Amino acid sequence: GAVVSQHPSWVICKSGTSVKIECRSLDFQATTMFWYRQFPKQSLMLMATSNEGSKATYEQGVEKDKFLINHASLTLSTLTVTSAHPEDSSFYICSAGTRGRGEQYFGPGTRLTVT
Amino acid sequence: DAKTTQPNSMESNEEEPVHLPCNHSTISGTDYIHWYRQLPSQGPEYVIHGLTSNVNNRMASLAIAEDRKSSTLILHRATLRDAAVYYCILFGNAGNMLTFGGGTRLMVKP
Hints:
The complex is a heterodimer. Chain A is built from no helices and eleven strands. In chain A, 0% of the residues lie in helices and 52% in strands. By secondary structure, chain B is mostly beta strands. In chain B, the strands form two sheets. Chain B has a five-stranded mixed beta sheet, with no helix packed on it. A four-stranded antiparallel beta sheet of chain B has the order 2-7-6-5, with no helix packed on it. Chain B is globular, with a radius of gyration of 13 Å.
């Protein structure tokens, strides 16, 4: 299967600072990338859908000014958590896929801890 | 969105077959049935998908009921590395998103 990487794998930051997470599809071009958040012992919750070259589509309840998504190329999407707060601490996972196809390839996740 | 219902958890013995059920009574004619699994502290991993016919791959088999209102993921010989949360998800061609439900936590006993 296709490989998706995320960087960093974990990060600790102070409240009020911003953190950038990168998601790369290593061996294929992804027209669409997705960002999920997962709290302990819960399922994945879709935050936003990122299409290359256009603005991201955010799910209801997700603040687009707080979670900035940039999908600059067919192999890279970034999620920036701005002015992070402790309640933003979570496991952030990206996935990459091709429009119209259900198979998505997930990154290994980034664990964010805000102190 | 068509929803799926799965048991919260299941237990299996190592090297025995495991049948993970999923109900999707409101499935539409164009919805594909996808299965993903998530090992602890990792991103989900694609397992298998199908539309109407049963499907086999190196990881598992997918048995789809004739009326498509339910399906079963079959692991032929469970190993300790198969312990994970298994998600059954419906994917429609018109859409582009995977909506994760609660999934089934599979525990494998040695």
